[in-house]
Design goal:
rod-shaped, 453 residues, Helix Hairpins, Heat Shock Protein 90, five-stranded antiparallel sheet, alpha+beta, Beta-Lactamase
């Protein structure tokens, strides 16, 4: 039972969207990291701007108060609350919130320092800046410390990431819809082709001429080639049935005629003669039927039953079985085996029947002047060879094709015309060749079997 495969539409949908989905995940992770980095930079700049503004106001007002603009900047910086603390020369308190967060590192630097600390049990980002100033009569370093909650920064970064995620998700959904319906639109020619094939009658094996996309033109070409082969096979089969019916009609009619007239023959001599004729026609009919069945089974049965066999032994057995017919006709029959075993992969039954057909054809069609019949085997580097040679009337070169044709007969012959056809089919099954060469007297038929490693 053939299992139904995933539809081409779903397959293309998954193939296209899977890598895009993976890219979107990596893009989302990257965008989140960028959002965090952007948030850090923006908030750090806001802290620096607030610290500079506070330092300027402290210097101008000598620590009395911050300007309204600076207070507005501090309250709006980065979208979150900014805390500050200022100490003047000698560490005197100037302004701001009490108990500012301190750095774990005691290292002092004239450049602004950023660090993470704790303020009221919350993580804060701190900027500490040191500048030389004069407040009243005191001169020295003024330390400006500004800080902001880390949670507000993280919320801002998360907001940026959510916006990016929503945008990416919207793009992916839009792309998925486009791909889904786009694939359906792209596969429409295949559905049209399917509908065109479905409405065909079983007898219509003509070529498919509907225009199709380039990607499926190879499938259509293969299907057209298959339809042509099926049509040719059906035509060949029909011709074979017609020829077989014609060939079977003659012996069947002869048997019927002899059987109908046999009761009227009372004399022992003529009756015995007619019985022999009836038996001969029955044997002819049986042989013809057997050849027809063997040929069709060989042609349409793709199953092979190949084993390692010795061609010498197969040919020797056939010659032992069929050689008696040659001897009864007074022929000089000779079997010459090869000097060593001829091992090959094959079906001993089919090869034996092919050799039998060659020998019987030589006996039956060799003519009245046939005196010798020889079966010889040898081997080369690439092939095992079997030769059947006689000194009969032979097969003219221009009649070789006719001899190998189904029911092909040379002149008025009592045979069925299937012997050489069967031999040819057997050799095709074994990837071998059969060839006919005329001699000065008689015919030589060679069978060549490839030697397989």
């Amino acid at each position: 039972m053939i299992q139904s495969a995933m539809s081409l539409r779903v397959r293309l949908f998954l193939v296209i969207l899977s890598p895009l989905l993976l890219v979107s995940v990596f893009l989302g992770v990257w965008r989140f990291e960028v959002a965090q980095t952007t948030s850090e930079e923006l908030f750090d700049r806001s802290l620096l701007a607030a610290a500079l503004a506070i330092s300027r106001d402290v210097s101008i007002s000598e620590g009395d108060a911050l300007s309204p603009r600076t207070r507005t900047l501090i309250s709006d910086a980065g979208g979150g609350e900014v805390f500050y603390h200022v100490t003047g020369p000698a560490g005197i308190y100037v302004t701001g919130y009490a108990y500012p967060p301190v750095s774990k590192s005691q290292q002092k630097s004239e450049s602004p320092q950023y660090f993470i600390s704790k303020y009221r049990d919350e993580d804060v980002r701190v900027l500490q800046m040191t500048e030389a100033t004069t407040i009243g009569t005191l001169s020295g370093n003024t330390i400006v410390t500004v800080w902001q909650r880390v949670s507000e920064r993280q919320e801002f970064a998360a907001s940026l990431a959510r916006r990016a995620a929503v945008l990416i998700a919207a793009l992916m959904v839009t792309l998925a819809l486009v791909v889904w319906f786009g694939v359906q639109l792209g596969l429409r020619p295949l559905r049209d082709l399917q509908n065109a094939i479905e409405i065909r009658s079983p007898d219509d094996l003509s070529r498919i001429r509907r225009p199709v996309p380039t990607e499926v033109s190879g499938i259509v070409a293969t299907l057209n080639r298959l339809l042509g082969q099926v049509r040719q096979s059906i035509e060949t089969h029909q011709v074979f049935i017609s020829d077989a019916a014609h060939q079977l009609r003659n012996p069947a009619a002869a048997i019927l005629s002899l059987a109908e007239t046999l009761p009227e023959v009372t004399a022992s001599g003529p009756r015995r003669s007619q019985e022999k004729e009836l038996e001969k026609e029955a044997q002819r009919l049986a042989r013809l039927t057997e050849q027809l069945l063997s040929l069709e089974r060989l042609r349409y049965d793709s199953a092979t039953n190949f084993n390692l066999i010795d061609l010498n032994e197969v040919a020797e057995q056939v010659c032992a079985d069929v050689g008696s017919k040659a001897l009864l006709k007074g022929l000089e029959f000779e079997f010459i085996p090869a000097s060593k075993p001829l091992i090959l992969k094959g079906d001993a039954t089919l090869i034996g029947e092919a050799i039998t057909n060659l020998i019987e054809n030589a006996i039956q069609h060799g003519g009245e002047n046939l005196t010798t019949l020889q079966v010889c085997l040898n081997t080369t580097r690439k092939h095992h060879k079997l030769m059947v040679q006689d000194d009969g009337i032979g097969i003219p070169d221009d009649q070789v094709d006719v001899a190998f044709r189904r029911f092909g007969q040379l002149g008025t012959s009592p045979g069925s015309g299937l012997g050489l056809t069967f031999v040819q089919e057997v050799m095709k099954r074994h990837q071998g060749t059969v060839s006919v060469s005329s001699q000065q007297k008689g015919t030589k038929i060679d069978l060549e079997f490839p030697i397989q490693d």
